Amino acid sequence: MTRPMTWDEFAAVLADVLSRLPTGTLLKLHEVRQPVGGDYAQIWQNPGRLYVELAGNIGRVPDRRLSGQQQERLRAAGWLPLDDDPDQFWRMELDWPATTAQYRGLAEHIVAGFRDVLRLGSPNYLAYQATVGTQGGSRPLPLPELGLEMIRIEYFARLGLTDVPERPKGLLRRSRIGSSNVDEALHTDGVWRPTDTLEWADIGEIDDELRPLDIEAAEQVVRWWRTLAARAAEEEKLPPGTPRMRLAAAVDGVRDATGTAVLPTARLHEAERPAVVAYLREAPLVAVAWGYDEDPFDPDRVQVVPLNMRTDGEWVWSESLAYFADRYGVPPEPDFLRHMAQRQYRLSEVDQERLDRAVALIRRG
């Protein structure tokens, strides 16, 4: 039986590894029991500089957040919080190449962070992930000399029939540590949370395609989702009275005593009807929906109502509004109709920032 490694032994091994990292290396040390949302140290080596990041409170699971006392102990040990915010990650830097004593000092700071502040009992509770940048992206970097289990992370884009990997309906990842798996999904707020989707996919219970992504492609999707989440949060913080992007209401037909859908009584003026239909149907696409819905007002017409989402940069709506306006003359809600009239039913170009805000609004519902 292999003798467990002590923290002093690990500090010596880590110092040696730090001295030999290839340019462009990213080394992450995670605690095994909580590989995401728990304690970690992240080390990356750029030409001329070695950067180290120790977990703060951002992205942590709630019951693992650092206390104020722990944060003060990190500061006293020489760690500095990003932007002087103690909830951000804690950082150190070292000129590279460095001396043997400097590598050992940095390794001992990392060990002290895990052992004395984060209260990790042993380096044997750590696992690692390492990659090195190449012209084609990045490749795994095995470091068996660390004496730790290697974390292997796989990413999957969840795709409906009209989705593309760069803009998937979902992003999943599986972290493999030895024989154990940790499966997570990226939520609309940009946070990874546990999921059983991959387990269902393993037994063929998911209709969507799960397409493997390399780490660079996955990180681009993560950045996009987190940008959408940040913009949604900004919208929520706008002062009262500030113009916001609005989601148009769907056509809401009531039903009579027999359960038959009854058309709304309001109708568009015939003179404005073509302009309204064109506006609703030709605005930039935000989300493409696969298939069509049935017409609730004509049971014989099935799979005819389009469900794509469109925007003019100020309003977001379902293309079904164009169908009901065209076929029955049903107008959109009064504020939206007034907005179109004020623009003289003319569409203008919508920039990427507003398209992203529209996507964020749809996801919030």
Topology (elements, then pairings):
Blueprint: H1 7-19, E1 25-31, E2 40-46, E3 49-54, H2 68-76, E4 80-81, E5 90-95, H3 100-117, E6 126-134, E7 137-140, E8 149-159, E9 170-177, E10 180-186, E11 192-194, H4 197-202, E12 209-213, H5 215-237, E13 246-247, E14 254-255, E15 261-262, H6 273-282, E16 285-287, E17 292-293, E18 305-306, E19 309-311, E20 315-318, H7 320-328, H8 334-342, H9 352-364
Parallel strand pairs: 6-8, 13-20
Antiparallel strand pairs: 1-2, 1-6, 2-3, 3-5, 4-5, 6-7, 8-9, 8-12, 9-10, 10-11, 14-15, 16-19, 17-18, 19-20
Helix pairs in contact: 1-3, 5-9, 6-7
Averaged pLDDT, please?
86
> Which structural class do the helices and strands define?
alpha+beta
Backbone CA Rg: 27 Å
User: What is the first-to-last residue Cα distance?
Assistant: 55 Å
Largest β sheet strand count, sense and barrel closure = 12 strands, mixed
Beta-strand content estimate: 25-35%
Contiguous helical run count:
9
Estimate the global geometry from the Cα principal axes. Answer: elongated
Written as H for each helix and E for each strand, in order along the chain, the element string is: HEEEHEEHEEEEEEHEHEEEHEEEEEHHH
Give the beta-strand count.
Answer: 20
Approximate helicity band: 25-40%
